[in-house]
Amino acid sequence: MADRHNMGPHRRILLASLIGTGIEFYDFYIYATAAALVFGPLFFPVQSHSAQLLASYASFALAFVARPVGGVLFGHFGDRIGRKSTLVASLVLMGGSTLAIGFLPSYAQAGWIAPALLCLLRLGQGLGLGGEFGGAALLAVENAPAGWRNRYGMFPPLGAPVGFILANGLFLLIGLVLDDAQFREWGWRLPFLGSSVLVVLGLWIRLRITETPDFVAAAKAEALPKVPVATLLSSHLRATLAGTIGVVACFAIFYLSTAFAMGYETGTLGHGREAVLGVELIAILFLAAGIIVSSVVADRTGAARMLGWGFAGTALAGLLIGPMLGASSLLVVGAWLAFALFVMGFAYGPLGGWLPSLFPAGVRYTGVSLAFNFGGIIGGGLAPIIAQALADRGGLGLVGAYLVAAGALSLGALALVRRRGAR
Questions:
Q1: What confidence tens digit (pLDDT) does each residue in 69-116 have?
Q2: What's the pLDDT at 199?
Q3: Which of these, 240, 260, 226, lies nearest to 381 by C-alpha position?
Q4: Is pLDDT at 292 greater than 90 in this prediction?
Q5: How far is CA 41 from CA 52, 119, 250, 270, 346, in A?
Q6: What domains appear along the chain, each with residue ranges and CATH number?
Q7: How far apart (Å, rounded) are the C-alpha atoms in residues 24 and 125?
Q8: Which of 31, 80, 225, 336 is spaced 20 to 30 Å from 403 by Cα?
Q9: What is the mean pLDDT of residues 182-208?
Q10: How far is the CA of 129 from the CAs of 68, 145, 240, 408, in angstroms?
Q11: Distances (CA, A) of 297 to 242, 243, 251
């Protein structure tokens, strides 16, 4: 066990990795929620509700296209000049884009300029988030004592439920205070405007941390390549491919159980918005539990084993989605969401320790960022679009098959790399 006396100086580092990703994911999730609830009719005025959702989800997917670009950009500077300053820059870009969305005019006010600006700012969100997870994971893991790699690495993933609770909790409170017309007209803007307070808090914390020991050692040893992405793809392609495929399942199950489920329950099945938000908020606690349990156990049995359980659970959730997510009872719906997000914790939490272990320090920021974000395009950015199209064509059974395929694909990724022990 790590020396408790030495844990004190690391608390600020762990808080910085947690709160930074919490804020980043808050920004990201308020867009996902707004895309499911209001962006369709506000920015994409077509007749069919399903077509509006598809257009709204397409704008949601734009950030996933931008994320690998952000991963290369921020990964380059993170591997060249350091983790700290790069993390600060990613937070500023993400937060500024989110704040600007809160001031956008609707299609009725500005015509095509409104959706064009929305998509541009969505790209800015994606660029910022592209540099976030990799840097936050390295900030935690590269400061971890021996035997604590996965427990330290779980703090960036824990930012996901924290950000989700803040985002959907605020949407729920606003929905309880405002009527539907007020919510559609201006209430949806409040979470975007409120992100500015969280960004200032995150910057204050991140500006007070120091550089990681691994980066300092690599810099002293002159082990920092001039073009990290070139070195990564020429010397570590297998690890990059494994990391990319390994991320697919966690993104797929998360965005199907949040963004897609929100649109499906409120649109197709007609459940009340506040009721579905309340069920989602309870279910997200199971994600936090899954992240903590799997990461603690991973330091004893290995991250790959815990990830394997998460990927298999993703496939099982796919088999259960038809009879449960399509149920008339929100209790049954909530049970599926709780199970899906719990197993998602197993597919997500250990990634904080597993992905950095695949790469040497000189290309680690770039490697983790590229793998995480390319996997996000496959598993997350396209997931709500594909799921909505599949649901329209053949019901939830086809959506479940998509989840089964995602789980099987990520299971295959574990076979691509040898098991690596914690440092």
A1: 998 999 998 898 888 889 889 888 988 899 999 999 988 888 888 888
A2: 86
A3: 260
A4: yes
A5: 7, 15, 30, 17, 36
A6: 4-414 (1.20.1250.20)
A7: 9
A8: 31
A9: 87
A10: 9, 27, 19, 26
A11: 22, 20, 22
